[in-house]
Amino acid sequence: MNWRRRFIAAVSVAALAGILTSSALADEVALTIGKLLELTGPLSENAPSQDKAINIAVDYANQAAQSAGVPIKATAISADVQGDPQAALSAARALVAKGATVFIGPSITPESIAIANGLTIQKKITVWPVGTSMRLRTIKDEGTIFRTVPPDSLQARAVAAAVEDKLGAAKGKVLSIAYRNEPYGEGLFKDLSAAWQAKGGKIQGPIVYDPTQATFDSEAQQIVDNNPDAYVVIDYPDTFAKVGAALVRTGKFDPSKLVVPDALAFSTVPSNIPPQALEGARGTRGGSDTSTQAYKLFDDLWQKAGGVEHFALDANSFDSTTLAILAAAAAKSADPAAIQGKIHSVTKPGAAKYSPTNLGDALKAVWAGQPIDYVGVAGAFEFAPNGDPTISRFDIFEYRDGKLHVIKQIDAAE
Amino acid sequence: MSFLDADFWIGVGVTAGVYAIFALGLQLNVGFTGLINLGQAGFMAIGAYAMGMLVVDAGWPLLLALPAAILVAIVAGALVGLPTLRLRADYFGIVTIAFSEIVRYALQNAAFTGGNQGVLGFDGGWREFQAWASNELSPIGLGGTIQLPLLIAVWATLLICLAALTILQRSPWGRVLKAIREDEDAAAALGKNVFAFKLQSLGIAAALAAVAGFFLALNVTYLYPSEFDPSFTFFGYAALILGGFASYGGVVAGAIILCALTEGLRFLDLPLSSSQSGSLRFIIVGLVLIILAMFRPQGLLGSKAEMQLRS
Amino acid sequence: MERRFPFLTANARVAVRLTLVLILVAIVLAVARGPVAVGQTTLNGLVAAGYFSLGAVGLTLVFGSLRIINFAHGDLLTLGAYVTLGISAIGLPFWPAAALAIAATAGIALVLDRIVWEPMRRKRASTLQLFLVAIGLAMVIRYTIQFFAGSQPRSVGQDVLSAIVVGPFHLGALQGLALIVGVAAATLVGLGLAFTPFGKKIRALADDVALAEVSGVDTRRMIRLVWLVAGGLAALAGVLYAAAVGSVNPNFGFLILLSLFTAAVLGGIGNAYGALAGGLIVGLAQEWSTLFFNARWKPVVGFAILIVMLLVMPRGIFGSGRARS
What we know:
Radius of gyration of chain B: 20 Å
Strand order of the largest sheet of chain A: 6-5-7-8-9-13-14
Largest interface: B-C, 51 and 49 residues
Shape of chain A: elongated
CATH architecture of the largest domain in chain A: 3-Layer(aba) Sandwich
Helix content of chain B: over 70%
Number of strands of chain B: 2
CATH topology of the largest domain in chain A: Rossmann fold
Oligomer: heterotrimer
CATH class of the largest domain in chain A: Alpha Beta
Distance between the termini of chain A: 78 Å
Order of helices and strands of chain B: HHHHEHHHHHEHHHH
Helix content of chain A: 40-55%
Structural class of chain B: mainly alpha
Strand content of chain B: under 5%
Number of strands of chain A: 14
Strand content of chain A: 15-25%
Largest sheet of chain A: 7 strands, mixed
Largest sheet of chain B: 2 strands, antiparallel
């Protein structure tokens, strides 16, 4: 009898060990992230840095997961959206065929809407575009679209507050606004001019320019004509390099009167923009308590990786990728619907806060089933039910010697 | 096998169908009338936006908006053709491309067309139909894919247009058109109103562009000015030339092959960076275009004889 | 006198008329919007004209003598700029690198003629076939550049900020250079076509290939010369554009192509002076339009003028030959 009992016990222990080991192996999550990039086409300047941002995020998260003992591994595959909604739809489908269950990108709202309506809503795949247009919120995406970029309405208020802060007052002050002729600029301009005029200020412009034109001197002249109290230029680094040069050449441009939104926020001004166009200029970008350390970490990772310089909104792509991986870890699965279900629980208001500097701990916590509030490089998100960030905290920064310095933080909701 | 994903190839089929309808109009102009119409994307934009705005701003049902949009495009074709059809062929081409770009920039800058924000929300009626159709298709096991109803709609329309154009081409009207292409002065000498025929040809092409635009709009569910840039027209021409000069069937074959090639190359996985993979894809497409133009100039279904007749 | 300089006199008359019209328009505008604004926008327009003219000369030369609508021409501008970047990366200073790049691009244009355009000529290819080849070639050139250089924007590192200031007017130093070189190049090509033996042979070739051969012109050699000049000028335009505008990416040549076509056709396609005139009209019209309309409509201005011109004066300013069918 002794032997039988011992035999049964041994077999049970062995069986239990076998079950435990196999279920541990089954828990290893292999997440395929689809990168929807503007590899060719009119917006192709974006792609190299967005690609790098996502790759850095994947590598960093994988390392953090490994050190923390969390069995999740992400890989990223890319497809070209070509700046065209029809091509974007095809690109997304190719990535789904290759196993992607979450999308980072695309860059513009028409592509996002085409993909949402044609693919991802049905398949419950979460999409993390970089576009800020409120148009995106007019479709019923059934909770599949999330953005780490602040909506125009909030950023416009932040920019207005930044200008008011610089000038000391807004009433009666003339703000000259210029933007590149595309949805980001147009959307932000509408909200900004409303916000500025609500404060009692006046608007000069808008001066709108097409990015493909040969010279920007006439537009630059219009921006600085009549000596306005401040200027806001809503643009991306590639065109701003040319507009900025034209502004300096007018001889009447004072960069300290310039305020720019987050698409022109970089820790170091890229080499294709003349430094005199931004020296002393101010700007806004998403912020948080942990901004400074998070941005430093991000920059260190960026420098170490070599390759292209910073471009617009790359921190936001980094954050989107990290959030997707956190959600997959929380869901213990790479299944798209499971990931979608966990995004709010990794950005839950009131839960324990984590940032990129302790990503390993964050992964451990979500793997253990705890809700967290992950605060990214570009700020905290605490997504609204529709997937837009609710946090209205912004950094106001100033460029000195080609480097970005945060001078204060504001809450755009006030 | 990821390459054989159904959703992906159905999507490619929809795109190919749109390009085929678009290029049927080009073939009518270039292959059968001798008109180098480089502004077809402009007519497509006008048709698509007319449909979108009628549904969203004026509350029209989709099925009424389509014929109205076709009408608007035909009127646009007439307005463009009236002053310009007397120009020499290559100058006509340049005027039409200028027209197409003006349309695009106007759509981007005008407030009533939605400007940069575009037009959204016109596809409600289609979505209901698509849901119903998917339901009907489920019993035979085809309800799982997303765009199968759209694919069927596009290709049914394409085949109808193809049949109509083929019949038209064999009619007396079609014969006059061919005569105009081969020798305008002779046709005029025989008492044919060359100008009127050219105008009709352009109008029909504009109508076909509007139909293509309608399906493009249903495919991407969002109207945005940059969708209608000259690259679309150039791609349509590539499909036409690949498929065969003066052959409507060739247009369809060319569109399928070109779209299948361009999209299929997405599955070429080489150990390259994302940017390099993206560039390589178009290097290959460009090379294929050059090689086909050099070594099979009559296209796949065209005849060399037809080509020699053209100057 | 008429017989000895027939070409010059006719063109000179047109040039004088054009200049007078432009000055008249400028004066009217100055009354409406003030001389300073008009003066500055005129300078800006002249700068744009510099790029357009320089880019359009090669385009018009190739069309005039070979009847090829070269949709790959814009990408030759990009090639010139990027080869310069590549060579300067190895250590050469900018302008010597640019000179080498111009020579290299001219050579590449020649090679492309040998392997692509000449076989098509021998097969008597139709306009559409040539069109398809040009599109394919444009793609191959552009995406090969992007394959090696990436699509991110690059600066060529020249001083885009230094400006020449005279009273209330300012002109970027490099932009001024682009303007002078553009005008000079177009004029030189025009004069060359008019007076040199090469020029006469190329004009004969443009008129009628068979006739030219029968008269003893070595058409093959002339064609090669045309491509060398066209390729070299395109590269020069690309280099100057990159230097004066400051930031480029592989799409820039293709994106400027339609403006180049507009300039070439406006001026009378096939005529080098026409490229200059067309460039001037497009450049000035676009910048002057900002005095009245929001700058967002600038791209439309060139196309609108083109359409009006083709309806009113279809052969273009310096054009000759049939325009109506």
